[in-house]
Backbone:
């Protein structure tokens, strides 16, 4: 047998080494061809009487990175065929477990997802202590859950509580914690010959029975043994309740994995594997899972690798950047640059103000230090990369300038002129503005071809997205270099063409506007906020309005010359709320919510007197208004050229707006609802609430041409 992906050898002592080395791939990935070859090779070792033991190893820097998610996304066979495929996989792994020969996993790097499941089916696991070695079942992070026995073997090794926690949170463990939990049996130095250690275990101690194949085996945490789950029923009930509270039933993979663990606990391992496979099939065939795989794995990963970067430009690196403005945003930008190993000049009007920005970085690092995520030496080295300043001359040696001051056009223009006097003519100048058009700001620049927008999101150290905003005169070379920069600091870039509010600020404004509009119509504010969370938004529109500040929102609207009639009315509503009722936002402790000191915030009780509640309201309509307002405006961004591709809208909406990931993002949402249903419901909202819900003619045409197919993506 000639193997393409799996190498096979047997030494003089009868120990077979099955080595993963997937051709034409930087990592070992599991798909139809690699798994078929793996099982044929394992079967060869099992059926060869001369073989006394088996080592599963890797020729790459990692063990097995997991399943091929593109294959799952494009899976086009029936549910029965999918179930049969899973059970065939389980049959082979069970054959490996019960073959009577000791099998060892030599985990030299990542063993994630399906790679972890293969390791779990071995009788002994040795793991390298290399800092980049992790083991874990991480499928829930992409809308799936383990389908090759992972839920059931984890359950029998860790008990139900840790199993639920680790799997639903996609927890990855390094070698020491994995050893402590019993997921691995032995750890070794990265310098050790891990295959030789595995062979030595086979020679000296090798056993060939899994604990769960002992008739007296009891699932940990289930004191009555297999067939009973007494003592943990309450735990599962609470887990289900907590899962629903968090997901509102929008994520079928979470509900299904809890069911697989619960019902599997009461069965022998072989029946439990059938239970898992059945729930896995239901999950894979759900539209939510396909959306999550497409958005989170394919689109976001492609964006993070810079797939949209203009072609033909060499990669540009940056050694030192200047950040102007040491507020929370500027400090956050300085922080992520220092973490990426880039030197930073953090400048403000005084050294004291610049130091306050550096203090923000110190506070974040102190939190990490207290939680054991860094060391004092690393923190000290990071802080040394940030130089505070009040002088423009300190910016002269920077490779890139990022202006991050208040949203005031006059102030930004003044800073541009002053800074360009000292920096090299080749240096890119970026503004972190969230609303003011880059072309407009670039008018104050003497080199508009090197002027670009880099819109970060707060808090910068946590938010992945950066909008790279192209002005009318921004050169392609500048854009390519800006993309290199964003990727170098570990952020995810999307390219956005110029326009007021760009993409995210503009579209998110529609969500906020609709929430405040419904408040004035008499929809109870608690309903607006709760429905927003129920549909999958991380926070309600009224709470986020207070965070932004109503006065700032009014100022931004007042600068926009192209407000719609609905927005003009809303602007007057904000004037009334601010001037008549004295409600401005969280900062002042008086916004759409009340913020009593030392107490939990609560919606201001007087709203019911100012805007009398409706006698009845439709919760579905409340949710659809919030989402449709964003989706329709996002399409207008695509239609007008603000965005280049639908996937940019999906990536931007998920990472920048917190748009519900189970829908796939703002463009995928149309197909999530169903294109024809989306058009009909939009028409209903248009007739009832106004033209903001009217679909552009080009979208109507797309929906018509799609027929019964998807509008934007095939799968």
Residues:
């Amino acid at each position: 047998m000639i193997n393409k992906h799996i190498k096979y050898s047997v030494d003089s002592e009868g120990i077979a080494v099955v080595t993963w080395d997937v051709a034409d791939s930087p990592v070992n990935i599991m798909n139809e061809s690699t798994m078929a070859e793996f099982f044929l090779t394992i079967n060869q070792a099992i059926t060869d009487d001369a073989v006394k033991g088996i080592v599963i190893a890797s020729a790459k820097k990692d063990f097995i990175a997991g399943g091929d998610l593109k294959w799952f996304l494009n899976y086009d066979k029936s549910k029965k065929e999918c179930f049969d495929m899973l059970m065939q996989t389980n049959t082979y792994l069970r054959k490996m477990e019960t073959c009577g020969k000791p099998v060892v996993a030599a985990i030299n790097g990542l063993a994630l997802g399906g790679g972890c499941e293969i390791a779990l089916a071995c009788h002994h696991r040795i793991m390298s202590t290399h800092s980049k070695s992790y083991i874990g079942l991480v499928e829930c992070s992409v809308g799936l859950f383990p389908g090759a026995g992972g839920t059931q073997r984890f359950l029998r090794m860790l008990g139900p509580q840790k199993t639920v926690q680790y799997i639903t949170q996609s927890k990855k463990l390094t070698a020491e914690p994995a050893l402590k939990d019993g997921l691995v049996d032995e750890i070794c130095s990265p310098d050790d010959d891990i295959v030789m250690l595995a062979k030595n275990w086979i020679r000296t101690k090798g056993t060939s029975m899994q604990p769960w194949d002992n008739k007296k085996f009891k699932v940990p945490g289930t004191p009555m043994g297999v067939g009973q789950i007494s003592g943990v029923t309450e735990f599962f009930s609470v887990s289900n309740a907590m899962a629903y509270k968090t997901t509102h039933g929008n994520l079928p993979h979470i509900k299904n994995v809890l069911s697989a663990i619960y019902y599997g606990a009461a069965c022998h391992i072989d029946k439990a594997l059938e239970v898992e496979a059945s729930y896995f099939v239901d999950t894979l065939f759900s539209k939510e899972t396909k959306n999550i795989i497409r958005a989170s794995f394919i689109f976001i990963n492609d964006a993070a690798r810079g797939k949209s970067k203009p072609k033909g430009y060499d990669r540009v690196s940056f050694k030192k950047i200047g950040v102007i403005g040491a507020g929370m945003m500027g400090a956050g930008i300085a922080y992520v640059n220092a973490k990426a190993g880039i030197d930073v000049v953090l400048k403000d009007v005084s050294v004291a103000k610049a130091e306050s920005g550096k203090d923000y970085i110190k506070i974040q690092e102190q939190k990490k230090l207290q939680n054991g995520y860094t060391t004092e030496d690393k923190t000290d080295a990071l802080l040394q990369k940030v130089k505070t300043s009040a002088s423009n001359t300190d910016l002269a040696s920077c490779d890139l300038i990022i202006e991050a001051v208040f949203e005031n056009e006059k102030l930004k223009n003044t800073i541009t002129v002053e800074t360009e006097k000292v920096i090299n003519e080749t240096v890119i100048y970026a503004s972190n503005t969230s609303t003011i058009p880059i072309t407009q700001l670039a008018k104050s620049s003497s080199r508009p071809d090197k002027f670009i927008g880099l819109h970060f999101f707060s808090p910068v150290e946590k938010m992945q997205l950066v909008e790279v905003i192209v002005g009318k005169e921004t050169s392609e070379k500048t854009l390519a270099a800006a993309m290199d920069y964003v990727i170098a600091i570990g952020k995810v870039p999307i390219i956005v063409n110029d326009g007021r509010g760009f993409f995210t600020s503009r579209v998110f404004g529609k969500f906020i506007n609709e929430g405040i509009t419904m408040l004035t119509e008499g929809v109870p504010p608690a309903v607006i906020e709760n429905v927003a969370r129920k549909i999958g938004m991380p926070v309600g529109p009224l709470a986020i309005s207070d965070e932004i500040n109503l006065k700032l929102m009014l100022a931004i609207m007042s600068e926009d010359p192209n407000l719609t009639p609905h927005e003009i009315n809303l602007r007057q509503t904000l004037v009334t709320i601010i001037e008549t009722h004295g409600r401005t936002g969280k900062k002042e402790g008086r916004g759409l919510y009340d913020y009593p000191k030392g107490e939990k915030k609560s919606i201001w009780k007087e709203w019911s007197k100012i805007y009398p509640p409706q006698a009845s309201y439709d919760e579905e309509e409340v949710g659809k208004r919030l989402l449709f307002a964003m989706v329709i405006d996002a399409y207008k961004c695509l239609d007008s050229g603000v965005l280049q591709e639908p996937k940019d809208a999906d990536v931007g909406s998920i990472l920048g707006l917190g748009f519900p990931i189970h829908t796939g993002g703002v463009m995928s949402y149309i197909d999530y609802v169903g294109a024809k249903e989306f058009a009909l419901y939009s028409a209903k909202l248009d007739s009832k609430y106004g033209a903001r819900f009217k679909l552009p003619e080009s979208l109507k045409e797309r929906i018509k041409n799609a027929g019964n197919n998807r509008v934007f993506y095939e799968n």
User: Anything to note?
Assistant: Residues 224-229 have pLDDT under 50 and may be disordered. The chain is about 50% helix and 10% strand.
